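> example.struct
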């Protein structure tokens, strides 16, 4: 099988035209890609878009996919407005985590951390300022500038926070800075730093200000530790005393209430007993007035009955009998007691009688 190739004299003249078409296609694809990438832009969920038209601010855009005029007519800048930034003062974290590692303090760190307190003592204060961007327009165009706004804002916050912290520490005593007043100083610092940032229109919101540590300088640290131990011991003794007080007072009150209740019960019982006796006596008196002789005899017999029930041996003699013979009990020679005779109810007692 044979192939024949025929020569076409128009091929050399068509080759430049074919190269021109390929070049146009490449240029068209490039322009299409350029239009695609310069027309559409994406704003993340934690960010805000700032659109510039010919280098001037035009509008803000929310998270999502947006369309704009191609560069250089419009330019989009994405600002992370929800991202929290942290600035550390007096220390520097090398590796955060469970076992956080810190950089060895430099002379600049110690200079920032050492402050003069209101009672003319030195305190080593370390703190953290956390902030986020809440106004992208102010953040870019008011203070920071759209070239390097982050570094500018950080420098402004550094100056403001150090100034505010030194002023607050200078108004407090060293004990307040190291122990009881740390939280109050942190809250006041947050408010003051935010006020100054708002005056400068930085578009930054302070999230938190936290005192990382506050301690006396190394030269006097032992003395301060001794004072803190004494203060803790004092608080412990006070708490123990308050606990003992809270334990003793309810017990004493309960004992007091019990004694009062017993006394009131005894008083009520005695009063009722005496009232009963008085009422019985009055009843007897009324009966006595009705029949004095009979009542007197009945009272005598009741009294003698109660006496004779507890007496061991009783000898009853007639008052008319005299002499010692009736008193002798020959069957019981051990009985030697001789007593006066008991008078009858109608006869007065006789001194010569014997029992």
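> example.seq
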């Amino acid at each position: 099988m044979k192939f024949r190739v025929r020569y076409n004299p128009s091929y050399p003249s068509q080759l430049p035209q074919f190269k021109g078409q390929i070049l146009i296609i490449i240029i068209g694809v490039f322009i299409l890609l350029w239009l695609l990438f310069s027309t559409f832009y994406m704003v993340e969920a934690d960010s805000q878009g700032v659109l510039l038209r010919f280098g001037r601010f035009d509008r803000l855009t929310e998270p999502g996919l947006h369309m704009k005029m191609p560069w250089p007519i419009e330019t989009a800048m994405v600002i992370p407005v929800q991202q929290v930034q942290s600035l550390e003062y007096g220390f520097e974290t090398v590796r955060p985590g469970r076992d956080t590692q810190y950089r060895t303090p430099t002379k600049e760190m110690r200079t920032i951390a050492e402050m003069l307190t209101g009672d003319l003592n030195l305190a080593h204060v370390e703190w953290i300022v956390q902030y986020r961007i809440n106004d992208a327009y102010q953040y870019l165009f008011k203070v920071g500038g759209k070239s390097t706004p982050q570094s500018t804002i950080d420098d402004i916050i550094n100056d403001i926070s150090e100034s505010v912290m030194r002023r607050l520490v200078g108004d407090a005593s060293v004990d307040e800075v190291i122990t009881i007043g740390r939280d109050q100083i942190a809250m006041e610092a947050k408010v003051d730093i935010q006020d100054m940032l708002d005056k400068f229109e930085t578009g930054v919101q302070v999230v938190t200000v936290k005192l990382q540590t506050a301690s006396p300088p190394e030269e006097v640290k032992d003395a301060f530790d001794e004072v803190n131990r004494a203060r803790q011991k004092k608080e412990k003794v006070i708490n123990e005393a308050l606990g003992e007080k809270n334990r003793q007072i309810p017990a004493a009150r309960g004992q007091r209430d019990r004694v009062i209740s017993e006394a009131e019960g005894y008083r009520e019982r005695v009063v009722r007993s005496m009232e009963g006796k008085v009422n019985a006596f009055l009843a007897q008196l009324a009966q006595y007035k009705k029949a004095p002789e009979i009542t007197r005899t009945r009272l005598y017999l009741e009294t003698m009955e109660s006496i004779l029930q507890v007496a061991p041996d009783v000898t009853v003699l007639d008052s008319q009998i005299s002499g010692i013979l009736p008193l002798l009990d020959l069957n019981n020679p051990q009985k030697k007691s001789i007593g006066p005779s008991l008078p009858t109810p109608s006869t007065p007692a006789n001194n010569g009688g014997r029992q």
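> remarks
The CA atoms of residues 33 and 322 lie 160 Å apart.
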